[in-house]
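To: structure subgroup
Subject: Chain for Friday's discussion

All,

I'm putting the inputs and outputs inline so they're searchable in the archive.
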Amino acid sequence: MAQPNQTIVNPLTGQSMRFLQTSAQTHGGHLRVETTHPAHGPIEAEHLHPRQQTCLEVLSGTLHVKIKDTEQVVPAGRRVVIPRNTRHSCWNDDDEPAVVAEDYWPALHTEEYFETLYKLDHEAVLSAKGFPALLSIVVLVPHFGHEVRPSNPPWPLLRGMAIFFRPIAGNYRTLLPAEMRNPWPARWRAWKAALPRGNQHRLPTGTAE
């Protein structure tokens, strides 16, 4: 479980992430992190958050954001809100680092996902874009499919691959938090328990504000 002000580093992409508000602090309401994208960093693999709304607020530098087929440049002091289940990617193509505050509503198990993702990087099982390589994807699919999914391959195919490759991908499961090493039924119950109570936060979505 992430701690406030804890920082994790992805040596492959050069990104660093600091946890500002954790799921425990917000009672599952949302997660807030601060991510530093290095200058001329790799383009993030396109993905989506099926059950979460995301807000990217640029604190310094400039962030390139692509939502579906529309690309925009978000300067410091502006933010962009991405609706749930919307494919997107972001990157820094400028000469200075870009520092971005990211909010996820609800929190779900997103902090565990990021921690596991960065552990996979240290084990050299990520692709050049910082997204899990094939064998590690099929390990993450049963555990973090509610939080994040790559846009390609299609989700039904990934789920089938996760089942097929499970016997030979078992070693990567040790990188998951202990409480996440559950079969599908237990994972479903854990996800339901992580949902916040009451109304979820909503922001206007679309272009940068």
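Points worth raising on Friday:
The chain has two domains: 7-105, 110-194.
Residues 110-194 form one domain.

D.
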